[in-house]
């Protein structure tokens, strides 16, 4: 997609020039068939040129807008999407680019120890008064804390309507992706290119060895609910494998199916489904079905993407489509992922995980360009299909996913050629965001960290719960716990 608009404009200009020359070639000023045809061709070319120029101009800032576009992110994901798929973007170096005559500056602050949010908290409230070249224009948020930044009272994210983005513009997107970034007044303050419904990603060789089949329907029957899943986990362990790589692997499935938010009237409440995760995971650790020491994203946890590198090979992971691209080492020829050794199915319960939302910072001096980036990256169907096919991402477009689900374009090599988009699209329709809160990231992370001690036998459940309560009130002093 890069430079497509410029190329179309150039082609249209050349076509127009050739047609004009032909039209001017008649010497008698009369109306002949050749002259009429040339005139028509010139008119068509002129229209094409005008359309191409308008398209190109859409990505260019207005004359009175800023010359530096500052984007705040926590990793390389959005930067790679813009670099690879936003028309006209030119990379300068790892943290700089160009869009027309605008310099693009990427500020990457990792999420570790809440550093990314702390950075946003320090700069966004005063953004409108910042120097022109220092103003934040775009910042990104995740579902676990999005409400904190789209709150109307906080007012650090612009209403998309103030950029001129309409409901019709976003009509092809999944409702839950809008709910995540909708404020209490019903105003939308961000948009995402992703739909992050998730499922169970299973090792095909282990499925054949234990279940006798690696067909997604057969595997789904073996993990259809938690009781069936636990029966299969016992069979997997008896065969010498781990069911999951680590204690945290099933957490998101349970936490996405809670009955109430983490925080109710200022008090942290442990939902029954979160306690169900604790009990199930403790039983799995004690039965040798998963590891109590393999932390999510850690080296021990990631060994399951290879064969024979861990204590035991791993039957399944839980994750969305971005998991394929960012987690599974599909660029490493030694990994199972690189050889198409995985399959995909729904699992015991539907869930979602993650996603990235683009917000326009209040105070931006580049509203025209910001609007175009949001619309191009979240609504342009050609760009979205390119992202899906190039990056194995599940994009936020019902029509694009329907197209991918019904064509070979949706087949993914990592999944042995399986097409997961029908399952992902169905899951995206069912995501329920009614229990979302601004405290989700902190509560989710601290709870899993505290329970690790219980799972490993280093302390009791009560000890782990006390550790969680202490960590939460330190992170969020305004909250109380049991």
State the helicity in percent bands.
40-55%
Fourth-tier CATH superfamily name of the largest domain: Periplasmic binding protein-like II
The end-to-end span amounts to: 54 Å
Number of domains: 3
What would CATH call the architecture of the largest domain?
3-Layer(aba) Sandwich
CATH topology of the largest domain: D-Maltodextrin-Binding Protein, domain 2
Radius of gyration: 26 Å
Kindly state the mean pLDDT as a whole number? 89
Spatially, the strands of the biggest sheet line up as: 2-3-4-1-5-14-6
Q: Based on CA inertia axes, which overall geometry fits?
A: globular
Q: In this structure, how is the largest beta sheet organized?
A: 7 strands, mixed
Weakly predicted, low-confidence segments: 1-61
Structural class call reads alpha+beta
Provide the β-strand percentage band. Answer: 5-15%
Structural overview:
The protein has 482 residues and is an alpha+beta fold. The protein folds into three domains: 4-56; 68-195 and 355-405, D-Maltodextrin-Binding Protein, domain 2 (3-Layer(aba) Sandwich), CATH 3.40.190.10; 219-351 and 427-475, 3-Layer(aba) Sandwich (D-Maltodextrin-Binding Protein, domain 2). The strands form three sheets. The chain has a seven-stranded mixed β-sheet, with helices on both faces. A hairpin with a 2-residue loop joins strand 9 (263-264) and strand 10. It has helices at residues 4-23, 33-58, 77-85, 115-123, 146-150, 175-179, 204-211, 216-222, 226-238, 251-255, 272-286, 299-302, 321-326, 367-379, 381-391, 398-405, 421-430, 440-456, 461-475; strands spanning 68-73, 89-93, 96-99, 102-108, 136-142, 191-192, 197-203, 242-244, 263-264, 267-268, 314-320, 342-345, 351-352, 356-360.
